[in-house]
Amino acid sequence: MSRQEIYALVDVNNCYVSCERLFNPKLNYRPVIVLSNNDGCAVARSQEAKDLGIKMGVPLFQIKDIVKQHNVEVLSSNYALYAEMSHRFHAILGQYVAPDEQEIYSIDESFLKLTTYAKHHDLNVYARDMRARILQWIGLPVCVGIGRTKTEAKLANYMAKKAKRFHGVCNLEDMDPKHREYFYSLIDVSEVWGVGRKHSAKLKQYGIHTVLDLARSSPHRLGKAFSVVMQRTVLELQGQACIELEHAPEPRKQIVASRSFGEKITELDDLKEALAKYVQDAVKRLRAEQALCGTLIVFVQSNPFDKHIPYYGKSLSLDLDEPTDSVTVLVREALKILEKVYKAGVLYKKCGVILTDMVDKNSYIPALFTDHDAIQKNENLMQTYEQIQQRFGKTKLAVGSCYLPNRRWSGKRESLSRNYFSWDGMLTIDH
């Protein structure tokens, strides 16, 4: 008989809002929303904001009346702050398991494999200790879900958040099966990890409305009707672990860098500045993944929701002669493409770049007649470029003028909190 696996999912409650509240306690117990890039849509909401009916992803302009009526605090996304808090959150959880027993699933979520710890620990106590330490050390509230599989742990985490009776920790692994089935009968099938809205409608056509309905279904039947992923989901709800922890995710198929402009842009030079920045952002991620880009795609578009002017959107791709991670090469080629897709007189809302046809840098073998000296020179240049940026900041050395202040195309972040982990943003005590 195979050993029963046990997993936990630890998740920060309303992560972005919780990070903001840590450094600004005046936000506690108030409705708070955090907006996406360019202050567009709500990407995080406090419980108080959720109770007002503010939905995830809703554009700010659609809820201005609610914001005004209920004095909702509106903040711009402070990604530097959230990234630092995320690093500390995951580092604390890493103290509870071995390195190969932790999967960082997202900025505010970690899967932990607790199988071996169940022999020597009460996992409920173990989980409560995690919560207490994270709250004490970095001030973030978290919930912990424990289950026999990752899918079950994810569902347990949902239950820990929704039901006060669990006090932030829900353990489905040691729960009485009758109680587990009762709770499953109360939860819509759309809340199951990997199901969502897309598949829930079709599942309901099969008479599967709740988690319990799905857990009692035939894995084989649903696998044929949907996919092997749905088959695994059902098996996981039945306690059979099919989804292992991921420690080395597959390389990305593409990298996208794009952002809506702070105001409408018409001039080609402004677009070039913005695109140069996005290419540099994309190359940074490309280099971090030790990959090379084989195909470059550039796109531009006007506002598709503006009914008063005709929509314009266009993209072009370029297959590079040699896959590269050179920022100078990619910026130069991207700007050439931009000149081809640009159309005068259009009020542009957005532009961007896509790096695709990516290959592993360490295993790539250049063609026989490739200019190897040029490749080495580009690599030397990139290393110097990165070292300067790392030491002095990315605004001190860049391709083009994209980091000069007050660019028309730069996104609006009017309600951005300070970066409390920088020298300029550190909290001070006024006498």
Walkthrough of the structure:
This protein has 431 residues and is an alpha+beta fold. It folds into 3 domains: 11-149 and 158-173, MutS, DNA mismatch repair protein, domain I (3-Layer(aba) Sandwich), CATH 3.40.1170.60; 176-249, DNA polymerase, domain 1; 254-392, 2-Layer Sandwich (Dna Ligase, domain 1), CATH 3.30.1490. Helices cover 38% and strands 19% of the residues. It has 14 helices and 13 strands. The protein has helices spanning 15-23, 47-51, 64-69, 79-93, 123-138, 150-162, 177-186, 196-205, 211-215, 219-225, 228-237, 268-288, 327-341, 372-392, and strands at residues 7-12, 32-35, 42-45, 73-76, 102-106, 109-113, 142-147, 169-171, 254-265, 291-302, 313-324, 348-356, 359-360. The chain has a 5-stranded mixed sheet. Strands 9, 10, 11, 12 and 13 form a 5-stranded antiparallel sheet that branches. Helix 4 (79-93) runs antiparallel to helix 5 (123-138) and helix 12 (268-288) packs antiparallel against helix 13 (327-341). The longest helix is centred in the middle third of the chain and has 21 residues, at 268-288. The model has no long low-confidence stretch (mean pLDDT 88).
